[in-house]
Amino acid sequence: MKILLAVDGSKYTKKMLAYLGLHPELFSASNDYTVFNAQLPMPAWASAAVGVAALKDFHAQDAEKVIAPVCKFLTRHGIDAKSAWKMGVAGPVIAKFSEAGKFDLLLLGSHGHGALGNLVMGSVATQVLARCKTPVLLVR
Prior knowledge:
By secondary structure, the chain is an alpha/beta fold. The protein has a single domain, classed as Rossmann fold. The protein is built from 5 helices and 5 strands; from the N terminus they run E-H-E-H-H-E-H-E-H-E. Strand 1, helix 1 and strand 2 form a beta-alpha-beta unit.
């Protein structure tokens, strides 16, 4: 199974990984995993002030800070995962990446760093569910 793990480094990312670890049908080296992080773009004035190259480097480093611990967790359990990041509004970017990659399943936490935007379910999760054709497993 080809599984996309959408991560943001929040406590809900950790809950999603804990859930994954408890379900051997999902947590297996026979599955193909990609760890994905969406980076919010900076305002245009920021790109003009620091330069496009510096901004891209900043986003790459920020994404790596979120992705690296998840990949380390997977590696400790014998799973070699791919990783990727894209810049854009998280919900639409995650849904688009999931469909473009033809994933069989998308896992994500129900809330992230922007959890106050929607108290029942995070706004990113709501956006992903509204846009994504890939089956989604939302972990609370």
